[in-house]
Amino acid sequence: MYTVGADPEVFLCDPKTGYPIPVCGLIGGTKAKPVPIPGLSEKGYAMQEDNVMLEFNIPPAHNADEFCATIRNARERLKMMLAEKGYGIYPHTVAEFKDDQLEGKQAATFGCSPDFDAYSNGAPAPRVNIKALGTQRYAGGHIHLGHDLKVPPFVMASFMDATIGLRSIIDGDAQYERRGLYGAAGRFRPTSYGLEYRVLSNYWVLNDDLMWSVAHTLDNLLCNMLAANSTTVKRWFAEIPWNDVRKAINEENMRLAASLARYINSHVFGPSQEENI
Predict the structure, then answer these.
(1) What CATH number was assigned to the domain covering residues 3-276?
(2) What are phi and psi of 39, to 5 degrees?
(3) pTM as predicted
């Protein structure tokens, strides 16, 4: 049994020009006090302004199909709400703003909690200096995973790198400068229910095929780990070339990512599961 959620970010745009616009003051809601998504009464659907982006939340899902359905429900309702207000969704992971669009406290506020680094055994990662972003902003597509597996959060984040992290590179998650700021391999935050995996941009949120790819890659990982015992999980961890996984993600090396994914699927997760019985 596992649960999976997400808090993706999207940019707003002017439908007439196609240019991105900051969300500041247009939608409402904050991290501390999110507001409901219109038309979705189920608990867990919410939205808020986060820096210059619109962030939305979904209720926890228990399988890949349910996860895709909740993302799709939130996304389509947001599109309807924004259209009624005269806005659209900017279909990109990075947006360039003008200096005067980034004035004010909200546009200068970034990051509510520190990130942690799976490749440093879960040690805190350096905080991002907002000045390093310049006039660019990057939209995230973070995954929230709940589970009762007896593995540390940094180990689970590493396994997520080796699966959905590599899959994201194969599927074309080009993050540009975001990788060096806060989209690097192994970025996560521990939570009371598991962890928040923070490596992905929002590249998968607006495309059903990419969303399906993320959901089912994660589902395969969790099904494997839930069926395994601690000896098997330790063997898997020892057999994955983590330096190469990190390199493939941070350098967005599609060829290396594809080669690693084939190896991990066939030679790490693929061997006989007799030791799990």
Answers:
(1) 3.30.590
(2) 90, -5
(3) 0.94
